[in-house]
Every structure is written in C-alpha cells, then in structure tokens.
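Observation: inputs received (chain + phenylalanine).
Thought: call the complex predictor directly.
Action: predict_structure
Action Input:
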Amino acid sequence: MASQSSQWNNNTAFLLAATGSAVGLGNIWGFPYKAGENGGGLFVLLYIFFVITLGLPVFMAEVFIGKKGKSNPVTSIETLAKSSKSSSRWSIVGYGGILASLIIAGYYAVIAGFVINYGFISASGVEAGAAAAVYEAEKANFWEMTFWFSLFLFSSGFVVANGIDKGIDKAMRFLLPMLFVLVIAMVGYGAVAGDFAKGLDYLFSWKAEDFSAGTIQAAIGQAFFSMSIGMGTLMAFGSYMPSNQKVSKASAVVVTADTGVALLAGLAIFPLALGLGFSPNAGDTLVFVTMTEVFAQLGAAGQFIGPLFFFLLAVAAFSSMISILEPSVAFLSQKHSMTRMKATSYVVAFCFLLSLVSVAGHNVWNTLSVGALDNPFEAMKYFADDFLLLLVGTGMSIFVGWRLEKVIDADVMGIQNKFLMNLWVFILKWVSPIFLMVIWTLGNLQILFGIRFF
Ligand code: PHE
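Observation:
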C-alpha cells in the first residue's frame, strides 16, 4: 500500500470530518462542566481568547503538516523534516500524537458508552432525587459498562475500516447535520423550559474572584482538546485535503463551528440546570448526575428530552471517535502496508484493552492509584490530555515555525497577506511554545507533585 494518502474528492469532506472530530464530548460534556467549575464567564472569555490567539494558529500548523506531507502523522513529519534538512527525529512528534490518540480512544469510548446507556436510562424515567444513586450504580457495573463501550468502539471502527470516502465522509455527511439540528433543538428547549437569562449571565458575566492560574490552564487545555489539536487527527485529515483547498480558511471554519457548538451546549445546559434550581458546578458529573436530575424533575417531558440530549452527545462522540482512530489506522496502513481493515482491527483491539482498564478505573480498580492520580481512568485522561497534548502541540508549533519556515507555502495556506503570514509564524515560533510550556510545567507540577505557584 502506498505511503501517500489518497484524497477526498470534494472540498466539504475536510470541513465535515474536521468539524465532526472537533465537536464531541469535549464540547457538550467537557466545556459546560469546566465552565461551571471555573465560575462561568471568565472561563468562557479566556477560552475564546485562547482559541483565537493560540488554538487557531497551532490548528493550522497541524493541518499544514498533513497537507504538505501528504501522509500519516509520522511519515508526513519525516518527509517534511527531510525536505527542510532537519533531523528525522522530529517524527517523535507524530508518534506522540498517535500515542495520545490511542489513549484518548481508550477512555473516550468509555464515557461515550455511558452516554448511550444514559439515553436508555433517561427514556425509562429516573425518579426525582435518584440521579446520584443511579450514577453510582452504573459506575459500579463493570460488565454493563464494557457492553456499552464495546458497542460504541466497534461501530466507530466499522466506519473507519470502510475508508475515507465510503466510511468517514459518508458518515460525517449524515452525522453533522443531525448534530446541529439536535443542538439547536436543545437550546430551544432550554430557553422555553429553563431560565435563559440566568444561563446567559452565567456563561458571559465576568467574575474576577474566580480567576486563578488554574482557570488559564483549564481554558487552554480545554481549547486544544476541543479543537482536536495534538493527536494526529488534523494531520491525517489534512493529508486527505484536495490540493486546491486552503488551510487557513478551512481551519477558521472548523474552529468557529467548534467554538459555536461549545457555547450552544452551555446555552442548552445552564438555563435548564439553573432554571430548575441546580448549580452547574458539579464537575464532571454535571451531565450524568445534574442533568439526569433535571430530566427527572421534568417528569414525562424529561423522558423525551433526556434521551434526545444523550442522543446528541452520542452523535457528537461518535464522529469524534472516528477521527480519534484515524491517525493510527493511517499510520499502520501506510507505513506498515496493511489493509485498512487489518489496521483498524489492530487499533480497535488495542483500544478495547485500554478501555477495559479505563472501565476498571471506575469500579474494580477504583482505588488503585497511579502516582498522584486516583485511578487508571484518571491516569489515562491525565497522561493524554494534560501531559501529551500540549507537548505535541508545542512540538508541532516549533517544527512548523522554526524548521519549515522556508517550506511554508502561502498558496497552500491561503494567506496572501504578508502581515498575517508573519504574525502566524511569529506565534508558532515564540508565543505558543513559550506559553504552552509554561502552562504545561505549572500544570504538571501541580498535578504530579502538588506544587502550586498561584
Ligand atoms: N475534539 C474532540 C472533542 O471535543 C475530541 C478529540 C480529541 C477528537 C482529539 C479527536 C482528536 O470531544
């Protein structure tokens, strides 16, 4: 099999696939709960600020590597390193991305499995006041969790195995419109049944007392995760971009859609939660406990709206999961000359094992701490999201900014304005590496060793 990627035959495929990748649990599960934990408005404004100043430039760098290198994350970087007379060791950035994507796949499938399970739970109706107990019971059930994540993992594997046209493009054409309709419907329902003004205020009002270094870290980490940066996905999808498509424009569209959906998810959840008297600062149980309680309080209407909400989450998670599997499948099939079917089987099998560990982290290994992390699930999440992601993001930024400066092609990028081009390269060279590494160091010192500077 060739080491070069084949290409999508139309310009919307990249937009749909990358948006499907970006919009996921990160937007609808992660963004609202992190905003809730960090006081709402300030987090949201910082988030938007970082999306524009750091996220978009690094996003474009990742897509550029794929588009110019025309292959899987590792081969693309190797090719570009060679053409710019750089060390072939830069490929470690590609391997780092692939490793991160595999670990994310391992825990992402488990949360998505929860989502599907909750679709059924909320349809059958939860008694008011029982949501917390239901959550504990579900978490404790190893086999049930395994059943739901397997269903999710194998179905996404099926799409990926079918290739980039008949699998990914075809699925995204169907999933994305559905996702947007569902999100809008949920916002509409929240506006009618909840307290929209309170929700808006919570999302956008500036509360200076909530500000800390942790808020900045959370906002940057969330922005990168939500935009699917640093896991090879954007390099892989970039390599399938038709040659006449421009990196800058396509990236801006995807990033705007991703941020839009995160805000809409906040507008779907906060008015409902606040309107019914719940505080949205429940942390990562906001969706599974607080929202389930909200649906329980809504009675019969909740039995309809609840499943719809979890269906929305499942659709978003599914299109992201497809994109999380892609970098390693592309790597195995192109670099190790396997059929996509075989490559996908290996990847899915490996993720299955990781997911089992992640499930066990919720129950049988719940108290098995890994270093400073509470259990294997938290450890996987930490290692991929907080440790690898920013590291790979920094690596790509430095690689493109410092090593590929001469290879950067205004035409491929679609940036004709000299000032904008220089600004982009300047951010990649200086701003994002320094900023990301400071945040990375502070965050890791705090998580691993409990050392806090602010
Ligand atoms: N961006 C996705 C989300 O918000 C997750 C993801 C990460 C997808 C990395 C692909 C690669 O849920």
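Thought: report the result.
Final Answer: The chain has a mean pLDDT of 94. The pocket of phenylalanine is lined by residues 21-22, 24-27, 104, 225-226, 228, 231, 233, 320, 323-324 (CB under 6 Å).
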